[in-house]
Amino acid sequence: MLEIRDLECGYGPVAALKGVSLDVGEGELVALIGANGAGKSTTLRAISGLVKPRAGTIRFAGADITGADPARILSLGIAHCPEGRRVFPYMSVADNLAMGAYLRRDPIRVREDYDRVYSDFPRLAERRHQAAGTLSGGEQQMLAIGRALMSRPKLVMFDEPSLGLAPTIVEQTLGIIRAIRDGGATVLLVEQNAFAALELCDHAYLIETGRVVRRGGGPELIADPHVRAAYLGG
C-alpha cells in the first residue's frame, strides 16, 4: 500500500532523513522505532505532506504522492494522528470530530461514523459538547484517534500515541490501535515504547540518525542484540 524509496528530508541545513526506504503492506501494522530525533516523526510528516522531501519518492496505492498537498493526501485515504494529540482546544468534542470528516460528502455515512466513534469511545459521547481542551490527556488521545477515523482512512498513521499517558490508558490506546488494524485499516505506528510496538506490529523498522538500520518482524527485532541493548533495556 505504501512504498517509500530513498527519502531525504530536512529542516534548513539539518538533514533529518538520509535515504529512508520502507514498505507497508495492505492490512499490516508496521512500527517505526528509534530514539527521539531519529527521523520517525519526520517520516510521517513527509507522507502526510507537512514536510516536502528533498529527494526520494513516496507512493500510496500506486500513486506518486511525493510532495503532494496535505488535502490531496487525506482525500486519497491517509490520516495522520499527530504527536501531542493536537486537538482544537476551544472547539467541542463533536466539532473536533467534524473536522476529521471535512472533506467528505456523504452525510449519512458521516453520521454513522459519529455513532461508531461514540460507541468505541463512550467517554467522548458523554463529553460531546465539552471543549476539547478541558479533557484529560487520555480523553484527548481518544478524540485524536476518533478524529482521524472520521475520514474513513485506508492508512492511519499514529505518532507517539502513548506519550504522557498513564500506564492503564497506554494499554487501552494500544488495544484500540490493534482493533483498528484488525478492522481492516493499515497502520503505521511511531511509538516510544519500543517493546510494546514490537509486540504489536507485523513488521518494524529501526531508524537511527535519519537512516533505517534494522528491519524485520517484531519477534526478530526483540531478539536482536543491538535493539535489546539500545531500546529494550538489555
Q: Determine the strand fraction and express it as a percent band.
A: 25-35%
Spans of at least 5 consecutive residues whose pLDDT stays below 50 are none
Work out the oligomeric state of the chains in this entry. Answer: single chain
Main sheet characteristics: 6 strands, mixed
Q: Strand-and-helix sequence, N→C?
A: EEEHEEHEHHHHEHEHEEHH
**CA radius of gyration:** 17 Å
**Strand segment count:** 10
Which term fits the overall shape? globular
State the CATH superfamily name of the domain at 2-85 and 153-231.
Answer: P-loop containing nucleotide triphosphate hydrolases
CATH class of the domain at 2-85 and 153-231: Alpha Beta
pLDDT averaged residue by residue: 93
Protein name: ABC transporter ATP-binding protein
GO molecular function: ATP binding
InterPro entries: AAA+_ATPase, ABC_branched_ATPase_LivF/BraG, ABC_transporter-like_ATP-bd, ABC_transporter-like_CS, BCAA_Transport_ATP-bd_LivF, P-loop_NTPase
Family: Belongs to the ABC transporter superfamily.
What does this 3D model show about the protein?
Pfam families: ABC_tran. With 234 residues, the chain is of the alpha/beta class. It has a domain at 2-85 and 153-231: P-loop containing nucleotide triphosphate hydrolases (Rossmann fold), CATH 3.40.50. It is built from ten helices and ten strands. A six-stranded mixed beta sheet has the order 6-7-8-3-9-10, sandwiched between helices. It has a four-stranded antiparallel beta sheet with strand order 2-1-4-5, with helices on one face. The protein is globular, with a radius of gyration of 17 Å. The two termini are 34 Å apart. The mean pLDDT is 93.
